[in-house]
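ok trying again, last paste got cut off:
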Amino acid sequence: MEFVQPRPTGKGPAEWFNGDVWFDVIHAGAEPSRIRANMVRFAPGARTAWHHHAVGQTLHVVAGTALVGTRDGTVYEARPGETVTCPPGEEHWHGAAEDRFMQHLALWDGTAPGDDRPETTWLEHVTDEQYAAPRTRSS
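nice, full thing came through this time. structure:
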């Protein structure tokens, strides 16, 4: 058993985020584990850039209202206690509603040895129009 010393909280880089985003790395697995886990805090209106994950991503909402957008223009709302899974390769973004902070646990896998795809591919920023699209709740 090992107790891992926490790393300092990091500020999300402007290349990957609009607005203020802070994250704590909970786990960055080393072989044979490839699991990644970050606790991420978004200021009101803050969001990721478009991106996708080689092996998918899971988001578990802890506080606030999470927004998760897909390339077809759908923006889903997720509440505390809800979990959203994004399949491998699906381009998406996630962030906070404009009126409150949002916190989620982000989980994803690194790629397997010999798989030279990046675990996360970052794309362009989400526009204000994409962010402001009508929102829906999952069924």
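cool. Residues 128-131 form the longest helix (4 residues). Helices lie at 128-131.
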